[in-house]
Design goal:
CATH class of the largest domain: Alpha Beta
Shape: globular
Pfam family, one: ADH_zinc_N
Largest sheet: 6 strands, parallel
Order of helices and strands: HEHEHEHEHEHHEHEHE
Radius of gyration: 18 Å
Domain Enoyl reductase (ER): 10-236
CATH topology of the largest domain: Rossmann fold
CATH superfamily of the largest domain: NAD(P)-binding Rossmann-like Domain
CATH architecture of the largest domain: 3-Layer(aba) Sandwich
Organism: Arthrobacter flavus
Strand order of the largest sheet: 3-2-1-4-5-6
Number of domains: 2
Protein name: Zinc-binding dehydrogenase
Number of helices: 9
InterPro entries: ADH-like_C, ER, MDR_fam, NAD(P)-bd_dom_sf
């Protein structure tokens, strides 16, 4: 939360211990799980039998959000990504039930194939046309958790300001909740408790890439991340391995 730096000092009450002893490695602490858990559990209230659609599903937040939905008992989890390789990755390595390549045909038509009765939960990190498609594909009383607008941040234009079909939203009685995650003690504890348990039970994996090179490598790593060259979380190693 304090920018890219090798060391940080501050008041003791602004830091907290992390349970590295119950994790496979220290890098497992550096994840986007608090955001994914808060949005999927507290905002979307995902549960048994839900049909879930996650955009940006191969990214740091989306890859964990989909797994959280499965661990919570969702019946079907569908993820969107920008290549056939990433779609295959979602299904074969992360345990998603289906994947959609948003560059390969209309998202709404692909959703109709995998969720013919509609989606109950939508976890959105992208915005743009995928948000518009989710409104049309939603089942009655579906819950939307809006986490980000990657389409607008990366592709520009109006992708960060999708059109809302208000009449459809009214008829279906959609709950649409944008949210931010402030990493409160309660949010940290909730994620930490379930994260360690699900890892131990084999219900979750932590998709990540580690890049060596220290702080100087961070700008190029971020640029490559935004261009879609990596999957999951991207970590830059500050010191020697």
């Amino acid at each position: 939360m304090n920018g890219w730096r090798e060391e940080l000092t501050g008041p003791a009450n602004t830091f907290y211990p992390v349970p590295v002893e119950v994790l496979p490695g220290a890098e497992y602490v550096l994840n986007q799980g608090v955001t994914a858990y808060h949005g999927m559990v507290d905002i979307a209230e995902v549960g048994e039998g839900d049909v879930v659609f996650v955009t940006g599903a191969a990214g740091g937040v989306g890859s964990l959000a989909g797994q959280i939905a499965k661990a919570r008992g969702a019946k079907t989890v569908i993820g969107s990504a920008g290549s056939a390789e990433k779609v295959k990755y979602l299904v074969e390595e992360l345990g998603f039930d289906a994947g959609i390549n948003y560059r390969d045909g209309l998202v709404q038509e692909q959703l109709a194939e995998f969720a013919p009765e509609g989606i109950n939960v939508f976890f959105d990190t992208v915005g743009g046309s995928q948000f518009e498609a989710a409104v049309q594909a939603a089942a009655p009383d579906a819950r939307f958790a809006l986490c980000g607008t990657l389409a607008g941040q990366i592709d520009g234009g109006n992708a960060g300001s999708p059109r809302l079909d208000i009449m459809t939203a009214i008829v279906k009685q959609l709950t649409i909740r944008p949210f931010s995650t402030f990493h409160t003690p309660e949010q940290l504890q909730a994620w930490g408790t379930h994260y360690g348990q699900w890892l131990a039970e084999g219900k979750m994996v932590f998709p990540h890439t580690i890049i060596d090179g220290g702080l100087e490598a961070a700008p190029a790593a971020l640029d490559a991340l935004l261009k879609g060259r990596y999957r999951g979380n991207v970590l830059v190693r500050m010191g020697a391995q």
